[in-house]
Amino acid sequence: MTRWAEIRSVTRLPAFGLLAASTAWLGLTVSFTRPYIPLYATRVLKMTPLELGAFMAATSLGSVALGAALGKLSDTRWPRKPILLGATLSAMAGYFGYLVLRSYGLLVLASGVFFGLAGAIFPQLFAYARDRVADFPPDTATRYTTVLRAIFSLAWVVGPLVGAELLALAGFRGLITSTIMAYGGLALIIGLGFRSDVVPRAPLPRDGPRPARIGAYPRGTFLAAAALTGFFVTNTMYSIALPLFVENLLKGTPREVGLLFAVSALAEVPLMLGLPWLANAVGPTALLRGAALLAAVYYGVVALSHGLVPILFVQAVYAATVAVFMSVGMSWFQERGPGAAGQMTTLYANTTYLGSLGGSLGVGVIGEVAGLRGVFWAAMALALGATLLLWAVPRSRRSRVGSPTGIGR
Prior knowledge:
disordered C terminus
């Protein structure tokens, strides 16, 4: 079967149309607002870099604390549908707080609670997708989630540009109001289309990893998790600092901010679709090592840039790093926990949330002390550190992405 035929075969799997629509809608909703939150915080809410970092960190801290609990409950007691609905309504409440709250302390508290709960949307959506194809071979399930992740990325091609136009036409209030309405649309899709019945957990193989005990994870899993967390620290620092860097140092516009995010997402989609086959050829850990090194190069280019053009030219480099860490990393953690898709997807998601927490605090402290350009130099150093950690991950016998034996070359 050709690669294109394999991708097309995914469209015939259970609930693909519903999950593709949900993933695209979520991607659009997130992407037309998120790039402009740092601008809103500094322009409208008058936050300093340190206050901005603490504000963004509150969301990450809430996501780690609440997301882990919800992931465990979704695998043992609660069906995923009400969790997804509750998380989506929490996102609506969080953005409503942006409109009505002006006290910094209340904003931090509301952000930690409401966006912390909303952080469950992404991992629970992909865990639900994994459950719907639980009876298919692992390679098929991996292709399923990879295609859905590519759809999420494709939404980022359009979302930031839509957000920039909304911002120009209706201001920040109109942008945030549109976001609340979009999350309401997602809640309707979930409420009307998702199944409420609990999918039975797959039996654990005798010799396979058992997520209930930390010692049962394959060697190197948590070392790699530390490396992924380090990468996501740099990614968060970059995503918060870039809009401010473009507007304040490069004298750019919100439309140019949106263009950078959109170009990166456009380059990411074909890379992500080809990753399962590339990972089978060279091994996922090798891909992660190369991506971390490329990230260091990219952050260095941004730190040296005094105009938008050099950054635009290297967006494909950034797209490659994100594609590897978001796609290969997710499959890796999911396959290490047969029968516990929610817990393992949340374990992976927590590396992103912990990275977001560290990156938010890092961009606040470093931005306050060394300025925005210093943030990118620090990101480059951290990416090099993540590369070294990945080289320290123990080698295991070669296996394919999606195989039940694990991934760890």
